[in-house]
Amino acid sequence: MHTWAPLFLLPNMRIQIPFENEYLAIVGPEDERCVEINARHPTFLPFLGSFTDAFRRTQTPSVMLMRDDAPGWIKSWEAVSGFRDVLSISAVLHNRTAVLIHRLPRSYQYTTSFDFYAYTLTTDYLKLITSNPALMGFDMVEEFHGQTTPGLPVSNWDRLDYDELLAEALLAEWHRRFYDSEPSWRRLALFRSLSMAHAAAQIPGVVGVTNHSLGRNIGLWVSAFEILVHPETDDSGVKQVYALLDQVDYRTQACKEKTYFCYEGRTKKQGQPRNLACWIYGEVNHARIDYLHGNPLKADRLTIPPHNKNLFNYVPALYRLLLTAFLGLNHYGPFKPREPGGLPYDAAGMLEYRFHSRQGDYERALAHILKPVDSKEL
Predict the structure, then answer these.
(1) For residues 183 and 177, is the Cβ–Cβ distance under 8 A?
(2) What phi, psi does 310 have (nearest 5°)?
(3) Is the pTM of this model over 0.70?
(4) In angstroms, how far is CA 8 from the centroid of its own chain?
(5) Cα angle vertex 325, ends 293, 177, to 5°?
(6) C-beta separation of 340 from 229 below 8 A
(7) I need a labelling partner for 36 at 20 to 30 A (CA). Which of 24, 113, 302, 370 fits?
(8) CB–CB of 190/177 below 8 Å?
């Protein structure tokens, strides 16, 4: 049996089903690997059990583990954070999109829920250390009282939903990116983009959120888009993003139609009409220019006619469609029968259904921008 060791805590998320590959895993304290660690180091599970929220209600953190015999290439910060980014982005894109479609509150809408905790255990499991540009610290485990981040929805019962098709595709790319000592530009761009998207998808603020807060996040999102499409030897910009969005095999009529005149960089809308995704991205990019370059702003700068929807809400679904084209995302993921023990369905047909169903969610989210505001959204 392999032995594992904790790397980082994730106190703002609760995971029931492990998110893992051969050498890394994000698990809950009840996982058999955590139980085995506690058998060797009896302070481990009591340490995990010491977390509460700001009102002393017990909270159960998740923990990232690494297998003790993991090869050196996995032990880099870029590989570890890249693994986390796969889960955080797959969850945030799915849940932000679901909120647009179903208009119901959901957890895990922001990557802040997936941030690593500042303190980590020493190898003897008796002390805690922290090291970052603001603080270097050293304390004892028995004096520790961990807390979740105030202002975030944290529940011991909410299931962590994420885009499993996207996650499986990204995990495959993760192995190729970090196993190779000289990765291709394409794979470097992908994980640089995911890292930027993780920053862009942070909660804009827990108090005092303004349009400037949203505009700042949008600026980071545009950076994630441009990093992903960067050709390495030339500039990256709105036209490269449009070209990749044009490669998506859209399923809905609203996204197939090319009836929208879009911004071509900083210029006015001109040229050939494009599809809905390109139109929304052009508006997002133009808003980014205004916010980050200090241009004069109106109070409604982030809302878009004809129904005054806020651009901030549509960027996650748009990024997923860009990833769809970049990855050639089609029928990733193992076939799963509808009911345990039931007769298997046609594998190819089921995978196609899963892909189209998930793809349709993101396209319907974009088309939502064309609908009048529902009273339930107010």
Answers:
(1) yes
(2) -85, 125
(3) yes
(4) 18
(5) 85
(6) no
(7) 113
(8) yes
Radius of gyration for the chain, computed over Cα atoms and rounded to the nearest angstrom: 22
Q: How many CB atoms lie within 10 A of CB 51?
A: 22
pLDDT-wise least confident of 266-275, 328-337, 353-362: 328-337
CA–CA gap between residue 173 and residue 184 (Å, rounded): 11
Task: Report pLDDT digits (tens) over 227-286.
Answer: 999 999 999 999 999 999 999 989 899 999 999 999 987 777 777 899 999 999 999 999
Residues 147/161, Cβ–Cβ less than 8 Å? no
Instruction: Show the tokens assigned to 216.
Output: 């700042």
